[in-house]
Amino acid sequence: MFIEDTELRELYKIASADHLEKIENGLIHLEKNPDDQDKLEELLRATHSLKGDSRMLGVEEAEMLVHQMEDLLNDIKESNSVFTSNLCDRLYQGLDAVRKIAREAVTGESSGISTFHVMAQLMGAEDEVEPDPEPVAVSQSAPETPEINAELPLFNEQEEEYPAELLAELAKEQEAMAAAAQEKAKQELAKAAQIEDHEIETVRIGFPKLDALMTQAGELSVTKLRLARRTEEIRDIINLWEDWSRTAFTSQVTIKELERHLTPETLEPIQKFERLNQDFLEQLGERVTQLKNVTVEDNARLEIVAHSLETGIRDLRLLPLATVFNLFPRMIRDLAKQLGKEINLKIEGGDIAVDKRILEEIKDPLTHLIRNAIDHGIETTEDRISQGKPATANLSIRGYQNANSICIEVVDDGRGLDTEKIKSTALRRGLHTESELAAMTSEQAQSLIFASGFSTRTEVSEISGRGVGLDVVRANIERLKGSIQVSSTYGKGCQFQLTLKTSLSTTHILIVEVNQSIYAIPVDLIDSMLFVERNDIFQVEGTPTITVEGEPVSISWLSSLLKLPKSTENNPTSKMSCVILKSGNERLGIIVDRLVEQQHIILKPQSKLLKRIPNISGATILGTGEICMVLNPKDLMQTALQGTAINNDLSNVLTQIRTKPKVLLVEDSLPIRTQVRRILDSSGYDVTVAVDGLDGFQKLQAADHNNFQAIVSDVEMPNLSGLEMTARIRQYKEYSELPIILVTTLAKESDKRRGADAGANAYLTKGDFDQTVLLDTLRRLI
Prior knowledge:
- This protein is α/β, with parallel strands linked by helices and 782 residues long.
- It is built from 24 helices and 23 strands.
- A 6-stranded mixed β-sheet has the order 10-14-15-13-12-11.
- The longest helix is centred in the middle third of the chain and has 53 residues, at 264-316.
């Protein structure tokens, strides 16, 4: 059943979700506290409301099931039955069915629910029992409530007479009903008067509209910066005016000296010019001063309004952490029962308000951490008892606010992380060498669990082994500009800590300069800033290093990390600006030419083509109007680490250079050619570019036929199209096995067939271009 009316459908969507959440939370509570009558009453109110809403909007299947659940709960209230594990399971099954039926009413997608089967389960029927050969038809509609007649007959036509006492009693009853009807009419008149005075105090706004407003409010931050720049320029004009005024005053003294030596006729033009100059200066001074005062006042007003607007919209987007936390008790209860484990769940900080987008994004990472804790971390009841632990494990989810960030902790008292086993797995998978693992601290070794595809398990479970590892959890958290850390004591438990920014709309950055170009670094991952002298730098295993707070910290030049021409690296200046980056327990110092300033910016995300450009997370427009690339500090640290490893083993570098796959890129559009070349460069390919099909074919022929391992080409190009170039290449036997990938905007099936007929191995469209597909295709074909 689908609710046709848009407004009613939206109302039912919101109301049913609220009621279902209250019912589920109530069941979880009553299963552990069956004597809590207040919670039982609250649960009955929620079921009654949901039943009424479903009846009003014609969601009859939901109404029928909720009605049966209400009957079961009323039996408990009246002491006709008690809460048991079996009864809770039946109520949960009914609740899950109602949730799917409610979703069908809102989306129109079939729920796939057999109401008869769920009703039988709610009534206690066993799943194994087959229905009678001729089952009694069960109406899908709700039982109708009999109407109460407004008038009672004083006699029955089939009866000839009634006793006088009965007639008197009926007359009294009719008089009472008339009085009640009169009183009801008065109440309705009173309500009508209230309706006339009614004011609408609330309005429902969709989050997409709030998102759009938040983006616009964030853009005001950039506008404020631009106006601040204008204010500075006005101050510069005032300074210039003051200098001009002082010069004019000096000129007046000079003219007075000339009066003693010049005739009045000669002196008059000079004096006239001086008077005009004074008038202009006075007018300019007044207007510039007035402009400065107005600008300062307007800037202050804009600052207040913009801050209030941004804060107000941000507050509207805030939802309590309980919105997500409340999803887990039922899941934990079911998983614990499935695995035969006893778990006591504790939730704290559910009232902490968080941006809606953060709540949406952290649900999956938290779910994965909790499932991992239940499956991997927490032992079975028997194992816990044999280890001298309480039979019931403790699992806590805690949220709290820390300065400008939100922290969420998932803590269990299970078996914890086996550091030696983690190192063994890392060695077996070739992630690190024995010497590197031996030099790691316990925290560094434990952090290896976030490596891609890392797992110490040898079998896949349905609970947590579904192909999604903790590397995905970390990636999701980092996408939110957050971080995740793990700490564990083997045999005693494990703690994961997620740290997230409270706001995702704006970013606080430090602007630095390298080679006369500016770059932005998010302040969140900056540990400190300092000046470094040449004699402060020493070598540790071939890596430039400085001492910060008594600890060695590796350093790199930002120009080298970004593959720019060397600048400060060869500068003999004694002091160099250094920014210390920190991620988890790792730190890296990067040398820049100059520290410019700090700003709040709106981060513009990268397009699909630039999604994987290393060391870059996006771009922004500064208050000066300049476009500035925003660096990715974690990428910079990884790039520096890879550079160190390469420098420590020069032979590996030479081997990699010799075996670098060579790709011929044929593309007539300069922007796309540049973007794709960067993608291929950063992915380890040696790229040769051609500006059209003819140029590509000539470069292919000019090289040794084994020189290129693949060709990536556009289709529509001058001189020779990609299809024509491909067909010409396939005429030569030595190129018959050369992989050719066509990347084009032509997306029709007929176009793809033409590409295959010409001899292309793969055909990718730019409309839905995903660089991951291109790179995966190249790896598969080469």
